[in-house]
Amino acid sequence: MPESLSVTDNRTGRTYDLPIENGAVHATAFQQMKLDDEDDGLLLYDPAFLNTASCTSRITFIDGDRGILLYRGYPIEQLAEHSNFLETAYLLIHGELPNAAEYAAWEHELTIHTLVHENVKSFMDGFHHDAHPMGMLLSTVGALSTFYPDATKIYDEEQRRISIYRLIAKMPTLAAFAFRHSRGLPYNYPDNDLSYAGNFLSMMFKMVEPRYHAVPEIEHALDVLFILHADHEQNCSTNAMRAVGSSHPDPYSATAAAIAALYGPLHGGANEAVIRMIERIGSVDKIPEFVTGVKAGKERLMGFGHRVYKNYDPRAKVIKRMADQVLAVTGTSPLLDVARELETIALEDEYFVSRKLYPNVDFYSGFIYQALGIPVEMFPVLFAIPRTAGWLSQWEESLLDKEQKIARPRQVYLGAPSRDFVSMSEREVQRPKIVAAG
Ligand code: ACO
Predict the structure, then answer these.
(1) 303 alpha carbon to ligand 1 midpoint, in Å?
(2) Res 432 pLDDT > 70
(3) What is an annotated GO biological process for this record, any one (predicted)?
């Protein structure tokens, strides 16, 4: 069977044969379809990238219909069970699981780069006491670029390596500093004898004791959550990382942009929105009224639905199991019962079934964070920490991809045609109006 697509342009009657490569057609192949020499050629219109691949990638694979997620070919369930976050981060960045020597060197590099410059503390101190920690994180990550001017040498492999170490290592430090600042507590320095998750919990929660040791089940649960959130193909924040990275700034600036994209309630802010929604519902008997409101379009059931998964999100399955394990240690939450019941009702309701809306990664993750004593406004920050590994692997892949250029989408212009400027005295009085796109 020929791997090509025949397209007839009914405006001209001409037929074109477009090669199909890896299940895709090059959008630029449509440029040759013109009415005349003046015509720029046919554009492909795809707001929100619903069916457009912006890159080739060898990092993460998702089969949304079957609920499959692979990092570099390894199923997420197996990584969650057998790996740890640092090993998974190595896998994402390098493409293969490390051997013992490679892992030891990787762990060493990520451990020695956990400290931030002392000036970062004064920077942090400048924020208002109730500043959102995600805002603090994205600003301080952006500010890191000013501390490491050599990071702009993005085609120097050594510089890329050290930026990757620094970003993955310092993210928990900055995240914990943001939390401590909002509580008016002194900053805790990293403890390099602890695990990645254990050190983060220590920087968050250590008070006057000489050393903080997290409850092992909690440390493990956080590490698994980090694995589950480490990458997710071309999601909104990864797309931001690649798009901003395509103009070749340093990776700290590109990561700050990715954090900004993750901040929104439709992306990394969803787990915060889930908890607020469940708190608002309050009790199991209020669920039917809430679901009726969702079906009437009043609001969305947060933590449900996904652009890619049209089946149960495989990460949500692991997280749901883990929520039970963590709450067995920390004590149960009545809100979790409301969430479970809401899930059961939604999964049997025709509205959600027909739209293939299932719980996504955010539906249960917030309950684990809450059980760990982490306030809701820190939830997206907890997402940003591990996703940094994914962002950086995607950023490096994009930089080394010979087919990539500066990301610059096209548009379909629907505005005013060319017209002459009219002086102010001759303009008719008109109420200013905003014309929505589309
Ligand atoms: N609650 C109620 N209805 C929903 C929901 C939801 N959570 N999600 C989608 N729908 C409905 C839409 O109203 C639409 O219905 P219609 O066809 O009658 O108009 C249909 O399902 C398709 O929805 P879209 O908005 O086209 O789906 P899209 O792929 O653009 O959106 C998204 C995906 C943003 C995740 C959406 O499902 C949503 O808003 N979910 C809630 C927020 C959330 O949980 N985000 C976290 C995503 S995972 C992550 O980022 C880590």
Answers:
(1) 9
(2) no
(3) tricarboxylic acid cycle
Indicate which residue's Cα is closest to atom 2 of ligand 1.
300
Question: Which of 319, 325, 89 has the alpha carbon at shortest distance from 197?
Answer: 89
Q: Which atom of ligand 1 is nearest to the CA of 229?
A: 51
Distance separating alpha carbons of residues 29 and 14, to the nearest angstrom: 14
**Residue 298 confidence (pLDDT) above 70:** yes
CA triplet 328, 329, 332: central angle to 5 degrees?
Answer: 50
Measure the CA–CA gap between 391 and 244, rounded to whole angstroms: 11
- Residues of the chain with pLDDT > 90, as a percent, come to 88
Point out the catalytic residue in the list 223, 250, 313, 362.
362
Active site residue 128: no
- Cα 59 from Cα 405, distance rounded (Å): 19
Is residue 39 annotated as a catalytic residue, yes or no? Answer: no
Alpha-carbon distances, residue 247 vs 152, 333, 399, 407, 429 (angstroms): 11, 46, 10, 8, 42
Instruction: Choose the residue to mutate in 355, 356, 362, 379 for probing ligand 1, maximizing ligand atoms within 8 Å of C-beta.
Output: 355
Helices 100-112, 157-183: inter-axial angle, 10-degree rounding = 50
**pLDDT exceeds cutoff 70 at 287:** yes
Q: Sign (positive/negative) of CA torsion 126, 390, 270, 254?
A: positive
Expressed in angstroms and rounded, the spacing between residue 63 Cα and the centre of ligand 1 is 18
Residues 113, 229, 306, 313: which is the catalytic one? 306
Instruction: Please give the single-letter amino acid code of residue 22.
Output: N
Q: Per the confidence metrics, is the pTM higher than 0.70?
A: yes
The token pair that represents 30 in the structure block? 């449509």
Beta bridge partners of 133: none
User: Of how many residues is the chain composed?
Assistant: 438
For ligand 1, say whether the CB of 295 is within 6 Å of any of its atoms: no
Q: Evaluate: CB of 360 within 6 angstroms of ligand 1.
A: yes
Angle of CA points 299, 302, 304, to nearest 5°: 115
Lookup: tokens for 347: 């999964």
Place of tokens 């490679």: 102
DSSP summary character for residue 375: -
CA 230, chain centre distance (Å)? 9
pLDDT of residue 291: 96
Instruction: Give yes or no for residue 261 CB within 6 A of ligand 1.
Output: no
Specify the CATH number of the domain 74-400.
1.10.580.10
CA distances from residue 30 to 5, 33, 42 in whole angstroms, order as listed: 11, 6, 5
